[in-house]
Amino acid sequence: MYLNPFANTWTCSSSASPAMEEFHRRLPEYNSTPLVSLPDLARDLGLGHVFVKDESFRFGLPAFKILGASWAVYRAVAAKVELPQTCPLDELSVSANTRDITLVTCTDGNWGRAVARMAKYLRIPAIVFVPQNMDQATKEKIASEGARVSVVSGDYDESVKAARKEAETSSGLLVMDTSWPGYEEIPKV
């Protein structure tokens, strides 16, 4: 166990931009993430308090990936349709549909479902490439968001290649949480 000797003097300064925070508040099913106290664990560890950030209900999805995915999709689509990054979601949806935008990504699970959820909010198509070893339940959860799930023969790296190829050949809008030389802006956000 590692106890940080500087923890009692550390303070959190939010790295999120006000625009990003405001954007997330406008999304359907927004709620704050509760901190859950674990007094028994704190006592067992000899600590005053232990808290766990419970992300299991964020936007109805059991993971924090929706935060990054939603912001990345919003920014990428807004840039593609040349709207300001302050435009309402419904206006972005209309413009994205007018331009026939399809989101393209790959995943091992939560990222793909989060991108698919944003596509659902925007009422635009999404294609999510997944590795062949992904369990059926995860594929079904992604598909339940309205995305087309495409199983790739191979591992996650092969699904990255398939998503890149799809975006290049179909003019889909690639929104990934991984980067490579020349593709850094969206994953960096």
Question: What does this molecule look like?
Answer:
With 189 residues, the protein is of the alpha/beta class. The chain has a domain at 65-188: Rossmann fold (3-Layer(aba) Sandwich), CATH 3.40.50. 44% of the residues lie in helices and 12% in strands. It has helices at residues 18-26, 39-45, 65-80, 89-98, 110-122, 136-144, 156-170, 185-188, and strands spanning 35-37, 51-53, 103-106, 126-131, 148-152, 173-174. Strands 5-4-3-6 form a 4-stranded parallel β-sheet, sandwiched between helices. Helix 3 crosses helix 5 and helix 5 (110-122) runs parallel beside helix 6 (136-144). The two termini are 32 Å apart.
What is the gist of this entry?
The protein is an alpha/beta fold.
